[in-house]
């Protein structure tokens, strides 16, 4: 008799759960599938090991028997055996735009992740904002815009790893939620990211532009709006797992060290032949990364954004590290205004989650010229330099080739200890001899008349004699020159010491 007391309510509970699982209904689910996109429930099943929903009954009753669920789904989950919080937009219900319940559910997910100190994964598919102009008649009023719970969104940048995925057209507040993260991911041809979509742009700006041209993966990744681009939703989920694998559960923990099958003492003779003797010739810096770090462990972030600057997550003998480098095939590896911003944000990520930094240095200096000056390169560059000097994590710099000027000085925080070694190809100074000679000897060369070319060659030869990195090492202005083949053993020995002195705890760096 007692077992049946609450039978009607339990039956109603089960009925409502089943209604919620229908999401926006068969027609809208079919429409979602027709665009090549999974539903939010399919996404959560594909992404996680398992998950438990919170707030499944949230929504609106529609008549005596109908129910429209909230268009955000949140829950606790495990991913790769780790506890996380998930929050996903349901595009089948009002295109993922906000309703009366979405604010509280999103805020709860943010607060739960931050206060329980576990990573947060956002699956974004829609605007996530306040809805359309059509709703104003229903409301009978308008409102002053605000972003509910944005304090939690910002706070989580300094508390827990946040991975955000764009899995459809993402605009407005949805786009802001995407980029206010540590790693953002989108899917080629399937997702677009913009402040406002094509229709709003045409109405407001008179510009007719397609959604791919406006916010497709090519434009978005080149702008640095997203860090990673996947070929499919399944690949996006795999990138999510991989990105999280380098990061701790929270700022109060250290990054997870995993067993490595790659020999920490592995020397690679190929490294000795990568940098050409001709200083004007570029080479493949990413090949150096592949040879130095654990095999298959390099995950580059933002490859199409500010491409002369390379930022990546990697492992050394199973220890996660943050990797900075330059690509000499783009502007010679010089630092641009955007490259400086990329550097500052990445160093902040390393600082927040206690990732020791490895900097493979080939920095000819800031990119110069009128375009660079109009971009405010030195102001952005000074911000990158500040981020480097504000960092407290262990730092290792390998001077691969050039180290010039103020940008070159950003290769490490010089006011504290850091491992620094150089390859015999090292070349450094305030200015490269090739560019600085004519400025330094301008008057002398002008007075030489027809003999100017001969005099310039003589001066260059004298300067070349003092250019040798061995001269710098003799004065202990660089600590050690090493055989490039032995770079990995040097770094794997350093990384063990680096992890021994890491101190967990939140930092003040919370910039997106």
How does this model look, in words?
Residues 6-259 form the CoA carboxyltransferase N-terminal domain. One of its GO terms (molecular function) is propionyl-CoA carboxylase activity. InterPro entries: AccD/PCCB, AcCoA_carboxyl_beta, ClpP/crotonase-like_dom_sf, COA_CT_C, COA_CT_N. With 512 residues, the chain is α/β, with parallel strands linked by helices. 38% of the residues lie in helices and 19% in strands. The strands form 4 sheets. Strands 12, 13, 14, 15, 16, 17, 18 and 19 form an 8-stranded mixed sheet that branches. A 7-stranded mixed sheet has the order 1-4-5-6-7-9-11, with helices on both faces. A hairpin with a 7-residue loop joins strand 12 and strand 13 (309-316). Helix 13 (337-352) packs parallel to helix 15 (377-390). The mean pLDDT is 88.
Name the descriptors:
2-enoyl-CoA Hydratase, Chain A, domain 1; 512 residues; 21 helices; 19 strands; alpha/beta; 8-stranded mixed sheet; elongated; 2 domains
Uncertain spans, ≥5 residues at pLDDT below 50? none
SS elements, strand count: 19
- Quaternary structure type: single chain
* Second CATH tier, the architecture of the largest domain: Alpha-Beta Complex
CATH topology title of the largest domain: 2-enoyl-CoA Hydratase, Chain A, domain 1
Radius of gyration, in Å, reads: 27 Å
Structural class assignment: alpha/beta
CATH C-level label of the largest domain: Alpha Beta
The rounded distance between the terminal residues' Cα atoms is 58 Å
Number of helices: 21
* CATH-assigned homologous superfamily of the largest domain: 2-enoyl-CoA Hydratase, Chain A, domain 1
> Which outline best applies?
elongated
What's the rounded overall pLDDT mean?
88
